[in-house]
Amino acid sequence: MSALTVIMPVYNGEKFLKESIDSLLNQTFTDFTILVLNDNSTDKTSEILDTYIKQDSRITVITKTKNEGPANLRNEGIERATTEFIALLDADDIALPSRFEKQLDFLKNHSEVGVCGTWFTFFGDKKEKTVKHEVSHDALKVQFLHSCGIGNPTVMFRKSVLNGLRFEHQYVPAEDYGLWSQLIFRTQFHNIPESLLKYRWHDANISQTKEANLRKSEILIKTKQLEQLRIQASNPDILFYVYAVSLQRDQASEHVIKTIKAAKDLLEHNKNLQIYNIALFENHIKRTIVRTIRNAGSYDKTFYKFVKHDSGFFNALKPMDKLTFYFKCLF
Fold this sequence. Notes:
CATH topology of the largest domain: Spore Coat Polysaccharide Biosynthesis Protein SpsA, Chain A
Number of domains: 2
Number of helices: 13
CATH class of the largest domain: Alpha Beta
Mean pLDDT: 95
Structural class: alpha/beta
Order of helices and strands: EHEHEHEEHEEHEHEHHHHHHH
Shape: elongated
């Protein structure tokens, strides 16, 4: 039996599919099975896959007769996988040759880690740029409060740590953020601080084509994380709690005041519950609030008085920011 299962959903992927599969076949670690889930493609995807099936016995293709979406396909792939270790790759991205070898070595040598990602490099329609997410578990937990801290197509994980958690179709195109932001409370995460994947950026990226649902999903995902700090979604000020950990620009001054009050509440909850590393959490909250004050949508004297005397964050502002803030509120 193989040591690793690679799950790749694909929908009308003829343009880049060969490059992605070839990047798997060129891995320095070779003991794996590739499970491709063809989401009722209408282009030449099926023909390309037929060619690869004949060339390499490690490749298995499941062809769907209706479009099910990437979240459902990944769930099916995970259910079908018979290996403990599972790797993900999208059908337009490229895994660098040593990716699997380095991730497996890390996971085998760190039994406490259930999910291992890597840094990655954008290419294609976007200028090449390497995304360097946080590396350690504690730092990643804090990062997840404002954004997904692990590149989904870089992920390798232990199947046993999921324990019922799944990719949620309702969160597409942020279904990865939804899953990993919950799983990080159950197992240790780690990012290998090296770019081991080329992430293709092009007009058809699902994250670009479903922008509205992305924004809505991110709020829901962040709200769910705050439940760990006993802040419930039913709280009438829930959005201000979200804004306390994830910058929202152009808030009216009275809303910034509510965000600051929510931030102070979160700091107190975390001191009591110790869900997050206290120092990392405090630094994150402080940075978010300082940026929120600097990017407020309106300023007035009441706002200035609150920030200076009651917020607890005034001294976190740089001297020039204090001066600018004073004049904005005055005039």
